Amino acid sequence: MTLLRLDNLTVRRGPCAVLSHVSLTVGAGECVGLIGPNGAGKTTLMRAALGLMPAEGTASLAGLTAAARAAQAAWLPQSPQIAWPVSVRHLVSLGAMARGRPADHPTVQRALDRMALGPFAGRTANGLSGGEQARVLIARALAQDTPLLMADEPTAGLDPAQQIRTMRVFRDLAAEGHSVVVSLHDLGLAARHCTRIIVLHAGGVAADGPPDAVLTDALMARVFGITAYRAETAAGAVFFPMDTVAP
Amino acid sequence: MSYRHLIAALTMLVVALFALSLVTGVARVGPGESLAALFRDDGGPLTMVMREIRLPRAILAVMIGVSLGLSGAAMQGFLRNPLAEPGLIGVSSSAALGAVLALQTGFAASFALALPVAALVGALVGVGAILFLAGPGGGAFTLILAGIALSALTGALTSLVLNLSPNPFAANEIVFWMMGSLADRSFDHVLMALPIMALGWLALARTGRGLEALTLGEDAAASMGVDLARLRLILLGGVAASVGAATAVAGAIGFVGLVVPHLLRPLVGGRPSRLLLASALGGAALVLAADIAVRMVLPGRDLKLGVLMALVGAPVFLNLIWRMRGQS
């Protein structure tokens, strides 16, 4: 089942096209890693896909009303914002309330448990550390319990254990039949945990497929301008950026 | 303290202050006798004082306090900024300009409610300008900038009117009106302001869910099913109606919308939706208390409500800033 369809999506900022004629579909059960250098258009792609910014072409979710969209897709923006000193539990429950569900809906406790936030539930969210706040916001998006979850660099600022935990949660969600689109800079995380990688470069899709097929030396040089050391381990592929190369 | 206890406590405070407001005044009569006169239908002078002077004054204090407290909480929630206040969108300064023009041109003397009507027209023009400048496409930032620009313009025009005023008495009247007061208001003022304010309160009461989602920023709120353009329209309309009507009948009264939500926020667990009702009641309590104080501190001198509010509000606010500084 297709949960997201983009047809010829083009986003302009002034005379420049940030994204140019991007078409793709995301189906149920996929954990899609969206990678690309800074400015490749990862955030723009996700925001335009959700109808949060004007775009040409079609995005399946953009035409929905705000309420209908909230039932289809949850969105986790990159910069954490928690304006008021609300409790962690209340903040996570906002995800359930976005669906018109009560604050004590089982999805709220499940999201708290998934992000190991049980001990923090009664604490004030904006009194936590940056990494802890990031986990609370991930839990908030999980509590929305939508078929599709889009997350913009959710692992930025998390310690290694929490990065792995977060990616496992996303992979588990995909295994349960949801789909996840997550932008990442850590290629190793993307390779180990995503079922599919979409590489954005210069406003278009440079590659799209299973991690092994996409993350080649040629792509590293062409898109990222780096050479990378790649090794297979029991836990999956590891990537170490080694040096920059001339494009 | 739970939310229900807080609301119950604030309600009791408002009721107690309302009763105290009714028994406060220049007439040297005991509280029991005053309250009895309110319900006695003998047409005596004390009954007249209670019904025609003190009762509308106390009711107006509640209405204006509710309007300012509720609008302040809504504005702070919408702009995600504890320093936001209802005056930020320029509605009160537009209302003041309308009133000042009415005083200057003599229109204010043409019929009993001419002054508040002119102020309301001013507020209406002001909110029209804001909606035009920061309408459906604009974000919170555009709204703040448009509000600042409108306040500056209306402030300058008000000063211009004062500057060119050939009549020192009119200038004097303008200055006193702008200080804000509830003295000598009648039921006509209550009846004129109440329907407009009530519409504003109803609109603001509907913003709770959107304000909760806005805790996480505009982008997240939009993805959580909040129609931001609609929310902005409801909120601006609500603030304009309630604050415009409040300024029209009582002049400019600052600090209520700023300080009350700030003081009550920790008691509602930071939740913007719960802060709405709490701040409405808190605002009513504060305006009632201040209006009692102006009559008790300098009984013979007509101390203006807006002046007292700023004199008390500013140090409270400075103290808050001092404590915030210590925390950060």
Automatic annotation (TrEMBL), chain A:
GO molecular function, a single term: ATP hydrolysis activity
The protein's name in its UniProt record: ABC transporter ATP-binding protein
Top-level taxonomy: Bacteria, Pseudomonadati, Pseudomonadota, Alphaproteobacteria, Rhodobacterales
Taxonomic source organism: Pseudotabrizicola algicola
InterPro entries noted in UniProt: AAA+_ATPase (IPR003593), ABC_transporter-like_ATP-bd (IPR003439), ABC_transporter-like_CS (IPR017871), P-loop_NTPase (IPR027417)
Function, in words: Part of the ABC transporter complex HmuTUV involved in hemin import. Responsible for energy coupling to the transport system.
Keywords for this protein: ATP-binding, Nucleotide-binding, Translocase, Transport
Residue ranges occupied by any ABC transporter domain in the UniProt entry: 4-227
Pfam families: ABC_tran
UniProtKB/TrEMBL annotation, chain B:
Location within or outside the cell: Cell membrane
Gene Ontology CC: one annotated term: plasma membrane
The species this protein was found in: Pseudotabrizicola algicola
DNA repair among keywords: no
Molecular functions (GO terms): transmembrane transporter activity
Pfam families, sorted: FecCD (PF01032)
Keywords for this protein: Cell membrane, Membrane, Transmembrane, Transmembrane helix, Transport
Alphabetical GO biological process terms: siderophore-iron import into cell
Protein name: Iron ABC transporter permease
The family this protein is said to belong to: Belongs to the binding-protein-dependent transport system permease family. FecCD subfamily.
Regions that span the bilayer: 55-75, 87-107, 113-134, 141-166, 186-204, 233-256, 276-298, 305-322
Gene3D superfamilies given in the database record: ABC transporter involved in vitamin B12 uptake, BtuC
Membrane topology: Multi-pass membrane protein
Organism phylogeny: Bacteria, Pseudomonadati, Pseudomonadota, Alphaproteobacteria, Rhodobacterales
Principal location class: membrane
InterPro entries in the cross-refs: ABC_BtuC-like (IPR037294), ABC_transptr_permease_BtuC (IPR000522)
